[in-house]
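In response to a reviewer's request, we include the raw inputs and outputs for one of the modeled complexes. The two entities were modeled together in a single run.
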Amino acid sequence: MKEKERDNIDDLFQSKLSEWEIDVMPQDWERIADRLPRATSIPFYRKATYWAAAAVAALLMVMSGIYFFEQQPVGEAIVQEIERHTEALKPPVYTAPSVTTEQPVIAKAMQAAPIHKKKEELPLKEREDEEVDQPYQAVEDEQPISVTAGDDEMPEQAAVTKSNAGQAEVTPTNTVSSEKAKPRRWGFGMGAGGVSVGASNVVPSYLVSTMGLRGEDLLLMNAPSGGRALPKTDVHHNKPLSFGVGISYYLNSRFALQSGVAYTYLSSDWQTNDEYKVKTTQKLHFIGIPLGVTYKIAEWQRFNLYAYAGVQMDLNVAGRQKGELVRDALISDVVIDSEVRSVREKKVLLSANAKVGVSYPVLRFLSAYAEAGAGYYFDNGSALFDKMSTMPTIYSEKPLNLTLQAGFRLGF
Amino acid sequence: MMGVCLRYVNDRETARDLLQDGFVRVFTSLDSYSGTGSFEGWMRKIFVNSALEYLRRTDILRDAADLDHTAELAGADSSVISRMSAAELMQVVNELPTGFRTVFNLFAIEGYSHKEIGEMLQITESTSRSQYTRAKQLLQRKINTLYE
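The model returned the following structure tokens for the whole complex.
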């Protein structure tokens, strides 16, 4: 805030001295770096806790899926079908409440025993009991028992019904079940596997992020060998690996909403050139939540063709960088210094995904699938997307990833 | 930022210590930068506060020169000052007594008001104003001596 006391002398001093700079010695920056608090690595017991929590969550989802499956009416339909088969295999129980043209033998038995009540007046059980108690009197012209269905063989799909006369009739049926199972609403699956492509790149400078070193420090170390190769860093990003646990909600026979939890593992390594070089390996772990829609395109010979489109949010939950300063001693590298430090990017990654896949049920709860698709990771301004940063990833080279994924999916 | 530290302490080694303290504070309190105003201005405040803390801690500000013995001087020619290099002006400023130099830096170069300076140095506004006046007079005398 300027006051009345300010004059042009004050302004002159301000203009000359406010932006006056003095070179800082390199040792000052090193001391500053040493004094900066280092990120403490997560102790092992906490790491184990995180993995145990993830395992418990996955187990709960599996159990929930099994529980939901057990509640599905599809099981009831299967039970009913089994009951019908069982009933169809039972020998028909014939009783004689009345005389019909199809039961000439029973009619003759009734005539032979006039003492008892007419069987049609008796309850069904008593009729049967009477049949057992009374001696059967053979009739010469006994007619064979006629059955409306085949003589000896029962049809495979047969319904056992009881007529008003209490007779057992066996009639073939054309349908296995007259009831339709309720459509399944929820699905649960786990999938893994991935065959995608990595990426490599050459950065025309030294990428150094560990041991308190900077690119300029490495330049000074290699200065005596000046005149050799220009500084560069060979960067290699391995293919991403992913594993997911998903849950589906079927809107109808074609569409389903999908979500779940996905784990992604990114690893990269880079190495500077020249006599003194820094080798760095980086491992990053991501947890993501996908959300999308699946459309069943077609089904043929149990092969299921589907398409998927959706988005996914990933968060870098843990990461580690290991750096080694080595001297190229022609025969082998001599390690001068090394450091392992934890790294983590706090910004959320957002990606859009689309894929087409085909699945085939191998077992009752297991199906194999293969998918081809593409995912685009949107640049959120984080170090993960900067080739020159201290945390480059494959997304800095290829935000658009083409993937081929194959694996197994558990379905309930 | 090294220049900022050197303007408050005319000892290079002490200025290097203040530089390191300042940058450690900057890196550890990055989350507190809200984005309003320039980042350089935010950093500069941290370094100025670090320097003032050092001066208060070492009680150097108490050793201010006796104001009553400073005589009125003729004003320096601004054209002379404009021809001087930043390093020469810096040397002249560093020859000031600590109290005068601190108030002069805060008012003339950093742009704080005397009221703000009084709160920062825990002195009255009139004391800040008088210290600044004496600082300017001493500077003018030194400049006149150099270019007579």
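As requested, we also summarize the result in words. Residues 119 and 335 of chain A are 104 Å apart (CA to CA). Residues 76-172 of chain A form one domain.
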